[in-house]
Amino acid sequence: MKLLFQGDSITDCNRNRENPNDLGFGYVQKIQAALPNHVVINRGISGNRTIDLLMRWQTDTIDLQPDILSIFIGINEVWHYHFYQKVLTPSMFEDYYKNLLKQVKYLLPHTQIILIEPFVLPIGVYQKSWDVELFEEQAIVRKLSHMYNTHYVPLQDIINEKLGKYKMDRIADDGVHPTDLGHEIIKDAILEVIKPLLGEEE
């Protein structure tokens, strides 16, 4: 099976983009290690937002014809708006995300889709003012998952549950980018969805 992971820096995780087989150093690499008999592809690009995915969707997703597609995007829409005044509103986020999903549903009808909820922890670069847009985006991803009948990973809830065991900076020391432990948590959450699709339920 071919598994494709799309997203921003959390997915990218310093992969060598000159090497299409490089998986970076985060959750995607960990998933490959857990599923050695399947093809895993990383096309996350640091700094990307939904508009950036849309611009490269044909070559980096549709042309690759994955059996399973994971989309993990959204935090840069919020972060870059508050830090760099790069406006991409929740309404725009929803429109672009819908376009991505419509293309996959129409052109790759047999591809299983997994939507991963964007998350943040209130430390590091985080600002309380992010909450309005972030909460709206999280609701949008949940809605789109239901609307397009995709699989869904409620990552904010999963991360929050881990805070009973770990301090925030153990999971994402700047509030956005996961540590190795954070990537391990993300990997486990995604594998819970993927393994049944591959017939590898534990």
Short description:
With 202 residues, this protein is of the alpha/beta class.
Task: Please explain how this structure is put together.
- The chain is 49% helix and 11% strand.
- It has 202 residues and is α/β, with parallel strands linked by helices.
- The chain has one domain (2-197): Rossmann fold.
- Strands 2-1-3-4-5 form a five-stranded parallel β-sheet, with helices on both faces.
- Helix 2 (27-34) packs across helix 9 (180-197) and helix 3 (50-60) runs parallel beside helix 5 (90-107).
- The longest helix has 18 residues, at 90-107.
- The protein is globular, with a radius of gyration of 16 Å.
- The protein starts with a strand and ends in a 5-residue tail after the last helix.
List keywords for this structure.
5 strands, alpha/beta, Rossmann fold
Specify Rg, calculated over alpha carbons: 16 Å
Indicate the overall shape. Answer: globular
Number of strands: 5
What summary fits the major beta sheet?
A: 5 strands, parallel
Question: Which structural class should the secondary elements be placed in?
Answer: alpha/beta
Proportion of strand residues: 5-15%
Mean pLDDT: 95
Main β-sheet, spatial strand arrangement: 2-1-3-4-5
The CATH class label is: Alpha Beta
Structural domains: how many: 1
Uncertain segments are none
Task: Tell me roughly what share of residues is in helical segments.
Answer: 40-55%
Question: How do the strands and helices of this protein lay out in sequence?
Answer:
Blueprint: E1 2-7, H1 9-12, H2 27-34, E2 39-42, H3 50-60, E3 68-72, H4 75-84, H5 90-107, E4 112-116, H6 131-147, E5 151-153, H7 155-162, H8 168-171, H9 180-197
Parallel strand pairs: 1-2, 1-3, 3-4, 4-5
Helix pairs in contact: 2-9, 3-5, 5-6
